[in-house]
Amino acid sequence: MSRVLVTGGGSGIGRAVAQDFAARGHDVTIAGRRMDGLEETAQGTDITCRSVDVTDEAAVDALFDAPFDIVVANAGAGKPSRVADLSLQQWNDTLAVNLTGTFLTFRAGLRGMGQGGRLIALASTASLQGGANIAAYVAAKHGVLGLVRSLAIEVARGGITCNAVCPGFVDTDMGQAAVTGVMERLDVDREKAERMVVSGNPMRRMISTDEVTAAVRFLASPEASMVNGHALSVSGGEI
Question: Please, what are the domains in the chain?
């Protein structure tokens, strides 16, 4: 049994990952800003909930009062905006939660992590390509992948790996928000908006949380001990 931390565990991918680890008998802790979402994830399980803002250095450090074997940095957010309309505050906030939050989580996660430890970031296909109207999110996720690739080299001799999972549009609240945004901007119905959102995926559908969770589970496994500094695209061939 491993001790597992999942940030952003109150919804979406983080919820699915945490519940999967818990169902397999691991000791799981989830962290996030909204305790109600965390408690909903934990319902009926032994998952531990911690209310934490991943951009708060002291709060993140306090999470690691005991070492974790597997740390999944999943917390993230982003809103569409053209660069010309993007405020400095929006830019800074997007980088803070996606990039700085991952840095703080991984830095603290290394404390006490031993041989076989796993650091896994949810980095998105936005870490591998550009996209109109999401420049801040793309820049942050490119930064996450750069962090992963650099940290992988630093920790390799200690038998620790650091990798990224890079999903396309996943059928979560965040994915559906993207569909709703297209509906509002282009005045189209939901079916057409969803087709437009997933048009970059050759399989032409949303990705399930189970498909992303399977990728995380693999990278956390002993069988992935020689997979390090890798960006695992879960995107139907988009990347």
Answer: 3-168+208-233 (3.40.50.720), 170-206 (no CATH)
Contact (Cβ atoms closer than 8 angstroms) between residue 114 and residue 70: no
**CA 68/CA 230 separation, integer angstroms:** 21
- Residue written as tokens 């109150």? 10
Cut 0.90: pTM above it:
yes
Average the pLDDT over 41-67 and give the result: 97
| φ/ψ bin of 193: left (φ > 0), alpha (ψ from -120 to 50), beta (otherwise) | alpha
Reported as half-sphere exposure (CB side, CA atoms, 13 A), residue 134 has a value of: 17
3-state helix, strand, coil in the chain (%, to 5): 50, 15, 35
Length of the chain: 239
Active site residue 137: yes
4: nearest Cα among 26, 23, 25 = 26
What is residue 41's predicted lDDT score, i.e. its pLDDT? 98
Cα–Cα distance for residue pair 219/232, rounded to 1 Å? 9
Type of residue numbered 237: G
Q: Give the residue among 13, 3, 6 at the shortest CA–CA distance from 72.
A: 6
**Considering 64, 68, 137, 169, which one is annotated as catalytic?**
137
Radius of gyration (Cα) for the chain, nearest Å?
Answer: 17
At which residue do the structure tokens 């982003």 appear?
78
